[in-house]
Amino acid sequence: MEFNETKNIFLQIRDWVADQILQGKIVAGEKVPSVRELAVDMEVNRNTVMRSYSLMEEEGIIENKRGIGFFVAADAKRNLLKMQKQTFLKDELPSILHQIEVLKLNSEDLQILIQTIQSNDHANQ
């Protein structure tokens, strides 16, 4: 994994695991890689991975089954979707809307995006 210098590594690891859950690559009840395994795979200190896992445990994304390991929580995907939608609407969408305004984009310019969103809506139904 290529780490971004502008964001803490433990947060990037958390985001990577969250993305794996949202994409269905790791599902509810499934064991996530051990702290040691993930540290080796990502070439980071085990304490960094443990910090990521502790944060995800606090957020209700994973749960620790002592002596067995960390597992994806039953409602992890739902919680992640809710958290990430809130973050997007609060932090990212205002910047996008500002760019639309500055670039004077109109509905015709955005039609491809609108069609993509509508296609995703139909695919998810």
What sequence of helices (H) and strands (E) makes up the elements? HHHEEHH
Write down the overall mean pLDDT. 92
CATH architecture of the largest domain: Orthogonal Bundle
* Structural class category: mainly alpha
The proportion of residues in beta strands is 5-15%
Largest sheet strand order: 1-2
CATH topology of the largest domain: Arc Repressor Mutant, subunit A
The H-level CATH homologous superfamily of the largest domain, spelled out, is: Winged helix-like DNA-binding domain superfamily/Winged helix DNA-binding domain
Instruction: Look at the structure and give the CATH class of the largest domain.
Output: Mainly Alpha
Descriptive account of the structure:
It holds the Pfam family GntR. This is DNA-binding transcriptional regulator YhcF, GntR family. Keywords: DNA-binding, Transcription, Transcription regulation. InterPro entries: Tscrpt_reg_HTH_GntR, WH-like_DNA-bd_sf, WH_DNA-bd_sf. Residues 7-75 form the HTH gntR-type domain. There is one protein chain. The protein is mostly helical and 125 residues long. It has two domains: 9-75, Arc Repressor Mutant, subunit A (Orthogonal Bundle); 77-123. The chain contains five helices and two strands; from the N terminus they run αααββαα. The protein has helices at 9-22, 35-42, 46-58, 76-102, 111-123; strands at residues 62-65, 69-72. A two-stranded antiparallel ribbon has the order 1-2. A hairpin with a 3-residue loop joins strand 1 (62-65) and strand 2. Helix 1 packs across helix 3 (46-58) and helix 2 crosses helix 3 (46-58).
